[in-house]
Write a structure and sequence with these properties.
Number of strands: 22
Strand order of the largest sheet: 3-4-9-6-8-7
Shape: globular
Distance between the termini: 45 Å
Largest sheet: 6 strands, mixed, barrel
Number of domains: 4
Structural class: alpha+beta
Helix content: 40-55%
Number of helices: 23
C-alpha cells in the first residue's frame, strides 16, 4: 500500500511537471467520460432500470396477434381476458387496466383534468404495492353495486390536500360521479404510465356480446383492456407463451368467428413502451459515444507513449538501480490512473449537466414514470468502471513499452537515448482507429445536421401562426354514445366562433402534423382476395371550418358544411396523396369508399372534395403513407376526446379563458388540457429528432476535435524525433518541399486507411439512425462526401503544420548533434 501511495504521488508530480500534456490528457478523457456518462444514464433509465417493483422482471404484458390480418401486440377483448385468467396456470395472476381521462373537481373549485386508469381488483396485489395511506382497490370494489371509490396519487394528495392524513373518506367529483377516496399511493407510483388516479375496472364480459374483431382499423364499443401478468417462480417466458398459445388455440376452435387466426404474445412490460426501434437507437447511441471514448483513450495513449519515449533513459536508470519491471510499470500506470481519475471527475460534472439538459429537452413529452434520469448507483459504478478502463486502455501499453527497453542500448545511446524505442505501428494503429471512428461519428453528425435543417425549413401547407389548440375530454358516463357527443360539439362550435378575437374555429379528432390513425377501407368497384389486400387510409374526423381554420385551400370540389349531417348523404374529403395513390387518373369526385372489409356494415362515402396533404402521417414519420381522408364529425362515430383549434387575430394563448368559459357554459365540469399554440404542437411532435440529433452532432464535433488533436500530436512528436534525420537530409541537398512531403506521406496513408474503414462503419451506423432523420436518406452521398473531404482536409492540415517545422531545422546544428 505504501508503494501504491508513493506511485500516485510520483504520478501527480510528473503531471505537474508537464502541465500542457496533463491538461490535454485530462480534458480529452473528461470529454469522453462525460459524454459516455450522459448516454449511459439515458440507456440505464430507459432500458436497464425497469419497473420499481418487487421482482419487476416477472411482470409481463399479454397481448394477441393475427399474422394474416397484420395485427401484432393488440389488447384483447374482455371475453378473451376473462378466459385467459380462468384457464392459465403459468402466472400468479392476470390483471387488466384501461387508461382514462378523469375530470376531477373539489367543492368550490374549477375542474381539472387528470390522467387515470381503471384497475381490476387484483392489480395492486399483483404489482405488490401498498398504499401509504388507506387501502388499494380490491375485487369487492369492482362488484356490481359496490360504492364508487378512487385511489389517488402521492403528488395529487400533496397538491390538492396538502398531505392531510384525513383525506381518506373525502368525496370528489370525477367525470360527473361522486367517488370516495380510499387510499393514497406511494411517492413515484404512477402505473401504468403517468397516472394520478385509479378507479375499479367494473366491466364484465357478460355485459357485452361476443362478436366482431378488434383491429387497429375497426371501432368497437366493447372494452379491450391491457393485460398484465406476473410469472410464477420457476416459470420461464417461453413456458408461459406455450401455455397461452394453447389457450388461444382452444378459443379459436370454440369461437371461430372472433378468434380464428389469433394467438398470444408475451413481452416484458417496459418493452411495449420503448419499442424495438428505440432500443436499437439507444444502443446505437451508446456504441457511438463509446467510440468517442475510444478516440479519447487513443489520444491519451499516444500522449503517454510519446511521454514514455522521451523517458526511456530515466526508466533505464531506475531499472539499473534495482527497480523491477513490475515496479516501473506500476509507476508509469500511476500517472495514467491520476489522469483518468481527474478526467473521471470532470466527466462526472459534464455528465451531470448533460443529464439535466436531456431531462429539460424531453420535459414537453414526459416519459413513463419508471424512466428517471439521474446519477444513481448504477451510473456511478459505470463511471468508476470506465475511468479504470480508460486508464488501462490509455496507460498500459506505453508503460509496457517503456519497461521493455534495453538498458545497455539506452545508456550507451549518448545523443539519441530518447529514441531508443519508437512509437511505431501501435501509434499508427491508434491514429487510424481515431480517424475511422471520427469518420463514422461525423457522418452521423452530418446526417443529423441536415435532418434538423430540413425540419426547421420544412414548408407546411397549413397555417401555424396565431392558432390556439387544446384538448377536451367528455366523460363516457355522461356522453355514452356518439349522438350525445356530436350534440355537444355542435353546440360548442358556434360559441367558440363567437369569441371576439377568433377568426375561425374547428373541432377534430387530431391536428395537422400530429398524426392520424389508419383505417381499413375498400374502394367501390375493387375486389380484394384476402383480408391483407385491403388498403389503409388515414382518417380525420372534423367539423365544418376545419380547412378554413388552418387556411388550407380546397383543391377540388368542396369542404364540409352544416348540411353534412347524419341524415344526409355520407360524404368524404380526400387528400392529394389519397388521390394519387387510389385514383391515379385524377378523377375522384363522385366516387365512393367505405371503411372495413367485405363483412362491414359501414355506409359508402361519396368523395366531394380534395385538399392538400396536411401531414396526416405526422411530421417525421418516415416511410409512413400520408394518404388519408376526412369525414364530417356529425356522420362519424366520434370518440370522447377532441382537439380544439381556433385561429385568432393576435396572441393565440390570450383566448384560453374565453375557450374554457365557452365550454363551461355547456358543462361546468369539463376542463381543457394540453393547451398549446400550433408551433408548440409542432415542436412537441419533433422533439425526438432535435434532441437526439443534437446529441449525435455533439458526438461528431467532439470526435473531429479529438481526432485532429490526436493526429497533430502524433505528427508533431514524429517531427521532433526525426529532427536530426531531417537536418542531415537538408545538408545533403533535400528541398523543404520534399521533406514536407516525406513527413506528410505517413499521415496521408493513415488518413486514407482510416477513412476507408470509417465509411464502412458509417454505413453500418446509418441504418438505425434512419428513425431519427427527418426527410434525409441515411446514406446520403452528399453527407458522406462532405465528411470525407472535411476530415481529410482537417487531417492533412494537422499533419502539415508540424511537417512544416522540418524546413526550419538548421543543417549545421543537426550535423553537429550527429
Amino acid at each position: 500500500m505504501g508503494n501504491l501511495w508513493q506511485d500516485f504521488r510520483f504520478g501527480i508530480r510528473m503531471l505537474v511537471k508537464n502541465p500542457m500534456l496533463s491538461v490535454i490528457a485530462v480534458v480529452t478523457l473528461g470529454l469522453g467520460i462525460g459524454l459516455t456518462t450522459t448516454v449511459f444514464s439515458i440507456v440505464n433509465a430507459a432500458i436497464l432500470k425497469g419497473l420499481p417493483f418487487e421482482d419487476a422482471d416477472k411482470l409481463v404484458l399479454v397481448t394477441r396477434s393475427n399474422q394474416e390480418l397484420g395485427i401484432q401486440g393488440n389488447d384483447p377483448p374482455i371475453h378473451d381476458f376473462e378466459d385467459w385468467r380462468e384457464q392459465q396456470t403459468a402466472f400468479e395472476g392476470l390483471a387488466a387496466f384501461t387508461g382514462q381521462t378523469m375530470n376531477l373537481s373539489l367543492p368550490g373549485e374549477r375542474p381539472e383534468r387528470y390522467t387515470g386508469a381503471q384497475f381490476t381488483g387484483n392489480m395492486f396485489s399483483l404489482l405488490r404495492v401498498q398504499a401509504v395511506l388507506g387501502r388499494t382497490i380490491t375485487e369487492a370494489d369492482a362488484e356490481p353495486g359496490a360504492p364508487p371509490v378512487v385511489v389517488v396519487g402521492y403528488d395529487f394528495w400533496q397538491e390538492r390536500y396538502g398531505g392531510a392524513r384525513d383525506v381518506v373518506g373525502e368525496s370528489v367529483l370525477v367525470n360527473g360521479r361522486t367517488l370516495t377516496i380510499i387510499g393514497v399511493m406511494p411517492d413515484g407510483f404512477e402505473f401504468p404510465f403517468n397516472q394520478d388516479l385509479w378507479t375499479p375496472f367494473t366491466q364484465r364480459a357478460t355485459n357485452h356480446a361476443r362478436g366482431g374483431r378488434r383491429t387497429i382499423n375497426e371501432v368497437e364499443s366493447r372494452p379491450f383492456p391491457t393485460v398484465v401478468g406476473r410469472l410464477k417462480s420457476g416459470v420461464s417466458l417461453d413456458q408461459a407463451e406455450s401455455q397461452m398459445a394453447g389457450i388461444a388455440q382452444r378459443l379459436a376452435q370454440a369461437y371461430p368467428e372472433t378468434n380464428q387466426g389469433f394467438t398470444t404474445e408475451i413481452m416484458p412490460y417496459t418493452k411495449r413502451f420503448i419499442g424495438n426501434q428505440v432500443y436499437a437507437l439507444l444502443y446505437t447511441m451508446l456504441g457511438a459515444v463509446l467510440g468517442v471514448l475510444l478516440i479519447a483513450c487513443a489520444n491519451v495513449a499516444n500522449l503517454l507513449l510519446a511521454r514514455a519515449t522521451v523517458r526511456t533513459k530515466e526508466v533505464a536508470i531506475r531499472t539499473a538501480l534495482g527497480a523491477s519491471r513490475t515496479r516501473v510499470i506500476s509507476q508509469l500506470m500511476a500517472e495514467a490512473m491520476v489522469i483518468a481519475a481527474v478526467g473521471g471527475v470532470i466527466g462526472l460534472g459534464l455528465g451531470y449537466f448533460g443529464i439535466g439538459w436531456f431531462r429539460a429537452a424531453i420535459s414537453t413529452n414526459p416519459p413513463p414514470f419508471w424512466i428517471t434520469f439521474d446519477l444513481d448507483i448504477t451510473v456511478l459504478l459505470f463511471i468508476i468502471g470506465i475511468t479504470v478502463l480508460s486508464s488501462l486502455m490509455s496507460g498500459l501499453y506505453p508503460a509496457l513499452q517503456a519497461s521493455r527497453a534495453d538498458i545497455n542500448e539506452v545508456l550507451n545511446d549518448e545523443g539519441r537515448g530518447s529514441s531508443s524505442f519508437r512509437m511505431g505501428k501501435f501509434s499508427g494503429a491508434l491514429v487510424v482507429t481515431e480517424i475511422a471512428l471520427s469518420c463514422a461519428l461525423l457522418v452521423a453528425s452530418g446526417l443529423m445536421i441536415k435532418s434538423v435543417t430540413a425540419l426547421k425549413t420544412v414548408e407546411l401547407p397549413f397555417a401555424t401562426e396565431n392558432i390556439f389548440t387544446a384538448r377536451l375530454g367528455l366523460p363516457a358516463t355522461e356522453y355514452a354514445d356518439s349522438a350525445s357527443r356530436v350534440a355537444f360539439y355542435n353546440e360548442l362550435l358556434p360559441r367558440l366562433a363567437a369569441i371576439p378575437a377568433v377568426q375561425a374555429a374547428t373541432l377534430s379528432d387530431g391536428l395537422p402534423a400530429a398524426g392520424n390513425g389508419s383505417r381499413v377501407l375498400q374502394l367501390e368497384g375493387e375486389s380484394y382476395a384476402t383480408d391483407r389486400d385491403y388498403p389503409l387510409g388515414r382518417e380525420g374526423i372534423v367539423t365544418p371550418g376545419y380547412f378554413d381554420t388552418f387556411e388550407a385551400r380546397i383543391l377540388e370540389g368542396r369542404g364540409f358544411t352544416t348540411q353534412d349531417g347524419l341524415e344526409n348523404l355520407p360524404v368524404v374529403v380526400i387528400n392529394e396523396s389519397f388521390l394519387r395513390t387510389f385514383y391515379p387518373d385524377g378523377d375522384a369526385l363522385g366516387r365512393r369508399i367505405r371503411m372495413g372489409r367485405a363483412d362491414t356494415t359501414a355506409k359508402w362515402l361519396t368523395v366531394v372534395g380534395v385538399v392538400p396533404d396536411l401531414r396526416m402521417e405526422g411530421i417525421g414519420n418516415n416511410n409512413a403513407s400520408p394518404a388519408g381522408f376526412y369525414i364530417p364529425i356529425a356522420q362519424s362515430g366520434v370518440g370522447t376526446t377532441v382537439a380544439i383549434a381556433v385561429r385568432t387575430q393576435g396572441d393565440p394563448m390570450a383566448v384560453t379563458r374565453d375557450v374554457q368559459a365557452a365550454i363551461n357554459e355547456i358543462d361546468a365540469n369539463l376542463p381543457i388540457f394540453r393547451v398549446m399554440s400550433m408551433p408548440d404542437v409542432i415542436k412537441a411532435q419533433t422533439w425526438f429528432y432535435t434532441t437526439f440529433g443534437t446529441l449525435f452532432m455533439v458526438f461528431g464535433f467532439v470526435a473531429l476535435f479529438l481526432a485532429a488533436v490526436g493526429l497533430y500530436g502524433v505528427m508533431s512528436f514524429s517531427v521532433s524525433q526525426r529532427r536530426i534525420e531531417m537536418g542531415v537530409r537538408m545538408a545533403m541537398g533535400a528541398s523543404g518541399r520534399s521533406l514536407i512531403g516525406l513527413v506528410m506521406r505517413k499521415g496521408a496513408i493513415q488518413m486514407a486507411v482510416g477513412l476507408t474503414i470509417g465509411l464502412v462503419l458509417a454505413a453500418l451506423l446509418a441504418t438505425p439512425l434512419q428513425m431519427v432523420l427527418f426527410e434525409v436518406n441515411a446514406r446520403d452521398p452528399m453527407v458522406f462526401g462532405t465528411i470525407v473531404v472535411t476530415l481529410a482536409v482537417t487531417g492533412l492540415l494537422a499533419s502539415f503544420i508540424p511537417a512544416r517545422r522540418v524546413t526550419k531545422v538548421d543543417p549545421a546544428t543537426a550535423l553537429h548533434a550527429e
